[in-house]
Design brief:
Helices cover about 15% and strands about 40% of the residues. With about 625 residues, the protein is α+β, with helices and mostly antiparallel strands.
């Protein structure tokens, strides 16, 4: 029997991995390689947690994966983070070739060990150990064993039965051992309906066993794994976190109260000099929101974002006085600092946990655990609503969140405890782009383009970055953005960022050549060379997953073509309107004297749709793609 890093009591509750097991796995490799649509096969994945007290928790992970091709390499997942608070007590891996022969054994000291830096951390005690292996052939199998221990029991990791698309899971087990007479643990299985996942429970704890799970095929617009794959969330009502104990933490209200009282209390003190400075800064301003705007601008101008992850830095903010002195902080420190400055001028503001990222992930309404969330923002009461600010951004307008924290449920730490609130959503036509352009061209194909583009909503947050680009990087971006203009030369491209109306305006002058196609006395040219949306989604004969359009938008373009002298319209497309539950499309063309005006509007709606509607959506996009490429013919008089 191979070495197992586990206490004797936990062994009784956990299936031990043996050499015999691994030989069976390796012997079946030929059969495994015939599995269709899989990049890797998880032969066995077991996670066992021993919650022995609120001051001690052990975790054992045993995983055997057969990787079938290069796309499946990430399925090995032979790694772990660790720190002063989370200790590795055992770690090893064994690698087998396609014939089932062991070709390598990696002990803990042989794993790559590096700081878990994120590119902007000032200092951190977080580190990561991982298996660095470059396969020379496929398939290969990795058996990985890990044990860790920690004195922090504030959260128990969520267990994912399936980690990624195109991954086959043969067997997966999640076990938690705890004393039911002393501790109250809650478990929330999600997305396990119609799957072969069974719960087993006895006096020593609980176990969830999955066998022969289906492969979740990766398809365009599929739901994110967190909202689609089977998993089990776990929360405990009693815990310890760096000496801060929690008891009877049963919901978000009680968790928020604990967080306020234990981790935030006393960390919002400021020097008398700073208090006097910000009070003078807001002197004469009565409206709390206008005061908050002034303070937010002060923070943007006088601080910078630097991650700090030491000790309980992952949850507790740096003291406001320290941020004020050093002029830097992470999301927690800068948010707490801004909250302290607002308090100094008489404005309430609430520390808020959010799962940030372009993918929208909600806090669970009925499952209070601090394991949810990866970022901190600030909620400022505004009548019956909130005004939201992200204190890490030096450029975002006041009250605008953008696509990093928009439209999701978050945890607001109010004076009365935690509360789940949804951040503002930027919906469909609110995410707009409006362009007005004049194009002049001659019979040789030379053209000049003068125009403006205005963006708002999520399109605003996706466009403002160009104002900070170097001239060289802006040129590269422009060449890619206006790639349909041959031999493009950008004569002018200037910007105006109106943070009050949250609108970004671009003005540009472009030149190019080889526009249109000349044949005798006839010239044929495309109408949409500036904002062409010809994308057509992937075709699937038998779609497996529902699909999601996470953010809608609206583009509205007006292009006036000045035709060459002595030319008249020979043929133009007719006006067209498309209506669909996914959005609509309008195209109109009008002619006046020596000009042709092309107007086009596309509205794409956000939503969640069944797989049965995917073909309709694809057909809608195919129709749009066709119309985006229509052409006009002009003829010499």
């Amino acid at each position: 029997m191979k070495r197992v890093f586990l206490s004797i009591t936990l062994c009784l509750f956990f299936s031990l991995n043996t050499k015999a097991q691994e030989k069976i796995f390796c012997a079946n490799i030929p059969a495994i390689t015939t599995i269709r649509n899989a990049n890797a096969v998880v032969r066995k994945d077991e996670v066992a947690i021993d919650f022995s007290s609120i001051h001690h928790m052990n975790l054992l992970h045993y995983r055997v994966v057969t990787v079938l091709n290069a796309k499946g390499n990430d399925a090995v997942r032979a790694y772990t983070g660790y720190s002063d608070d989370l200790t590795i007590t055992g770690m090893e891996a064994e690698i087998y070739n396609a014939s089932g022969e062991r070709i390598k054994k990696i002990r803990e000291k042989d794993f790559t060990d590096q700081s878990a830096v994120d590119g902007f951390s000032l200092y951190t005690d977080n580190r990561v150990k991982f298996l660095e292996y470059r396969p020379t052939s496929y398939p290969y199998t990795v058996a990985f064993t890990l044990e860790t221990k920690t004195n922090n029991t504030i959260f128990i990791p969520t267990y994912q039965f399936v980690d990624d698309y195109d991954e086959k899971v043969e067997e997966a087990r999640f076990t938690v051992k705890y004393d039911k007479s002393k501790y109250n643990l809650h478990f929330k299985p999600e997305h396990i309906q119609k799957l072969n996942i069974n719960k087993e429970e006895n006096e020593e704890g609980i176990s969830f066993l999955a066998k022969d799970l289906p492969i979740f095929s990766e398809e365009e617009f599929s739901p994110i794994p967190d909202e689609y794959f089977p998993k089990v969330m776990t929360m405990t009502t009693s815990f310890d976190f760096e000496g801060f104990e929690g008891e009877k933490i049963t919901d978000w209200q009680t968790l928020g109260s604990w967080f306020n009282n234990k981790l935030l209390r006393g960390r919002d003190e400021l020097s008398p000099e700073t208090v006097q400075k910000v009070r003078k800064l807001t002197e004469g301003i009565e409206d709390p929101i206008e005061k908050a705007k002034k303070i937010y601008e002060f923070v943007q101008q006088n601080t910078r974002y630097v991650s700090v992850q030491v000790g309980i830095g992952g949850f507790q903010p740096i003291k406001a006085e320290e941020v004020d002195e050093t002029k830097y902080g992470d999301c927690k420190g800068l948010t707490n600092y801004t909250k302290a400055l607002l308090k100094a001028v008489g404005v309430d503001a609430y520390y808020t946990h959010v799962e940030a990222g372009k993918t929208k992930i909600n806090f669970e309404d009925d499952f209070a655990t601090i394991a949810q969330g990866n970022h901190v923002i600030l909620a400022i009461p505004d009548h019956n609503d909130y005004c939201w600010i992200d204190c890490t951004s030096k450029t975002s307008p006041f009250g605008f969140l953008g696509d990093f924290t928009d439209d999701r449920k978050v945890l607001v730490m109010t004076p009365n405890g935690g509360k789940i609130v949804k951040t503002p959503a930027y919906l469909n036509a609110q995410n707009y782009q409006i362009s007005k352009t004049e194009i002049k061209f001659d019979t040789l194909g030379n053209l000049q383009v003068n125009g403006t583009i205005k963006t708002g909503g999520i399109q605003y947050s996706g466009r403002t970055y160009i104002s900070s680009l170097s001239p060289e990087d802006l040129k590269k971006r422009d060449l890619k953005f206006w790639h349909k203009i041959q031999h493009l030369k950008v004569e002018e491209h200037v910007f105006q960022n109106d943070k009050d109306s949250i609108q970004f305006t671009e003005s540009f002058v472009l030149k190019g050549d080889h526009f249109g196609k000349k044949s005798g006395d006839r010239i044929i040219f495309p109408l949409n060379i500036l904002n062409n949306n010809s994308y057509v989604p992937e075709r699937y004969r038998n779609r497996k997953n529902p699909f999601i359009i996470s953010r809608g938008y609206q583009d509205e373009d007006t292009v006036v073509f000045n035709l060459p002298m002595d030319y008249k319209i020979e043929a133009i497309p007719g006006s067209t309107t498309l209506d669909s539950e996914f959005g609509n499309y309008e195209m109109t063309i009008s002619v006046a004297k020596n000009t042709l005006t092309y107007q086009r509007k596309i509205l794409l709606k956000a939503g969640k749709f069944s797989k049965e509607k995917y073909k309709d959506y694809r057909d809608f996009r195919k129709q749009i793609a066709y119309l985006e490429n229509v052409k006009v013919a002009i003829l010499k008089n």
